[in-house]
Each structure stands twice: as structure tokens, then as C-alpha cells.
Amino acid sequence: MATKKTTKTTPAKATAKAAPAKKATAAKSTKVAKAAKPEVPETADLFECACEAKPAKKCAAKAAPKAEKKSRVTFTVRAEIGSKVFLAGSFNDWDPTAKQMEDKKGTGEFTCVLNLPKGKYEYKFVIDGVWCADCECPDWVQNDMGSMNSVKIVD
Fold first, then answer.
1. Closest by alpha carbon to 101, among 68, 78, 130, 71?
2. 155 Cβ contact partners less than 8 Å away, ≥ 6 residues apart
3. Global pTM value
4. Which contiguous run of DSSP H or E holds residue 111?
5. How many helices (H) and strands (E) does the chain have?
6. Residue 85: is it exposed, middle or buried by C-beta count within 10 angstroms (0-12/13-18/19+)?
7. Burial grade of 134 (CB within 10 A; 0-12, 13-18, 19 or more)
8. In tens digits, what is the pLDDT along the chain, a chain of 155 residues?
9. Which residues contact 50 (CB under 8 A, 6 or more apart)?
10. What's the rounded Cα separation, in Å, for the pair 151 and 132?
11. How far apart are CA 104 and CA 99, in angstroms?
12. Residue of 119, 118, 122, 120 lying closest to 144 (CA atoms)
């Protein structure tokens, strides 16, 4: 009988020991799951719009972008009456026919107005197909072609 009791006691102890081991494993799984939960919302927050979580604030993604303040800049050059005069520069990818200048009074004074954001711009006039720097402009820089470009700084 003592053998039977030992046999009965041993499986009971083994079962009792096995059960806490499973609980410990479950506890570890819970800890892992708890540690993983904060990571998922942080990643999800990257894709959520702030205004969905907090409707009182404006969402930067949904708000219209502010238009960059631009200044009216007038370019003027003297050329022979009846000339074809264009303005080319860093503001229009140096396109020699993108912006035609006008001689409104018929005096040979060609002008055009551009709205430009703050920055430094290089430019030249194209008068009857000839590229010319602005001789009235005090700021010039050498270009890659070995000639000079006029410089306009917009504040």
C-alpha cells in the first residue's frame, strides 16, 4: 500500500508542479503581450491624423498650405524700339522666350513684372536673340558660360 500511496502522491505532485509552470508561462506571455501593446498604438499613431484623435485642433495635413509671400519685382531695360525683348533667369529655368517684356509707351523702355518669393535670382535679358546682362544692376556673378549674370535679391 505504501507503494500505491507513493505512486498516487508522485503524480499529484508532478501535476501540481506542472500547473504552476503553465501559469508562469501564461504570466510571461501576458507580460510580452503588454509590452507589445504600446508598440502597436505608437506605430498606428504615425498614420492617424491628429485631428481625428483631438478634434479641437486643426490638422496640419488637412489644412491648406500657406502661400509663400511674394513680392512684385519690376525688370526694366532700354532697347531699340520694335525689338523683341525677353527676360530669362533662374526663376523660369533660363527659358529665353518664357517672359516677353513690353514697351508700352513705345519709347524703347521694356518692362515686365514678376511675383517672386524671397530669394536670390540670376537673370539676363534676351534682346533680338542676344543674351545681355542688366547694365543698371550693381550685382553680377560669373556664370558657367564665362559671361556675367545680373543678380536680383528679393527680401
1. 78
2. 71, 118
3. 0.58
4. strand 109-117
5. 2, 8
6. buried
7. buried
8. 554 554 444 444 444 444 444 444 444 444 444 444 444 444 444 444 444 444 445 555 556 667 789 999 999 999 999 999 999 999 999 999 999 999 999 999 999 999 999 999 999 999 999 999 999 999 999 999 999 999 999 99
9. 57, 59, 60, 61
10. 13
11. 15
12. 122
CA distance 94 to 146: 16
- Which of these, 76, 123, 126, lies nearest to 102 by C-alpha position? 76
| Amino acid of residue 10 | T
**β-bridge mates for residue 77, sequence order:** 110
First to last CA, the chain: 104
